[in-house]
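Hey L., structure's done. Input below.
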Amino acid sequence: MTTLHTVNKHSLNSDLLTSCLRVARGGDCILLIEDGIYNVRTLEDLAARQGCELSGLQCCVLHDDLTARGLAEKDLPDFISAVDQAGFVALACAHRQSVHWF
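Output:
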């Protein structure tokens, strides 16, 4: 059973993303939304410190939230893709369950 994990916060003192990475499994998707977008800068390093293999995960950001925070798709690492609202719905439909990290 695959899971869509949405992360909507970013804080240097928060362990939301760390907790998410601990439970994410191959086939799952991590979708960064709202201020969670700022995690694009630390996701790869944090995953490495946690011993989490990102290659088995789909990593995405919500495009509208990305641009609302002054970032562009060109700012994303290669392993993270941007999705629009329809893409968000498609991800929700493609995964059996959703976990919201907030």
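The chain has one domain: 3-101. The first helix runs from residue 16 to 23.

-- N.
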